[in-house]
Amino acid sequence: MTNTFNNGFAANVSASATLIYTASNNTVVLQLDLCNITNGARQATVWINSGGTPYRLAFQTSVPVGDTLQVVYGQKIVLKNGDKIYAQADTSNAFDVVLSVLENVG
């Protein structure tokens, strides 16, 4: 299989878990950004669910108004088939999320 660059997007992430991406093969996460689109500081939680277990990348991390939290930047995270990335905010319509991945690795 050929390596493929892909993206995952979510708009208006709220207080319930929002699925950002599901890996369908070996995948490398290259970057994951959350942008606060509200008029106040908000808290963000981001996690990978692998085999039914959540592994947090950020937990109730405060993001100032109009700022972007770079959850994954500069390092690489490997996802296996079926791993999922979720995001959650402390209020409604708080974040937009952009994820960049490289799929079909190895």
CATH class designation: Mainly Beta
What is the β-strand count? 8
Q: Which percent range fits the helix content?
A: under 10%
Overall body shape: elongated
Low-confidence stretches: none
Q: Indicate the structural class.
A: mainly beta
Please report the number of helical segments: 0
CATH topology: Jelly Rolls
Radius of gyration: 13 Å
Summarize the main sheet: 4 strands, antiparallel
Distance between the termini: 9 Å
Mean pLDDT: 97
SSE string:
EEEEEEEE
> How many domains make up the coordinates?
1
**Which strand order does the major sheet show?**
1-8-3-6
The proportion of strand residues reads over 45%
In CATH, the architecture is Sandwich
The CATH superfamily bears the name Nucleoplasmin core domain
Describe this structure in words.
The protein is mainly β. It has one domain: Jelly Rolls (Sandwich). Helix content is 0%, strand content 68%. The protein has no helices and eight strands. The chain has strands spanning 4-13, 18-22, 27-36, 42-50, 53-63, 68-79, 84-89, 95-103. The strands form two sheets. The protein has a four-stranded antiparallel beta sheet with strand order 1-8-3-6, with no helix packed on it. Strand 4 (42-50) and strand 5 (53-63) form a beta hairpin. It is elongated and about 45 Å long. The termini are close together.
Write the layout of secondary structure elements.
Layout: E1 4-13, E2 18-22, E3 27-36, E4 42-50, E5 53-63, E6 68-79, E7 84-89, E8 95-103
Antiparallel strand pairs: 1-8, 2-7, 3-6, 3-8, 4-5, 4-7
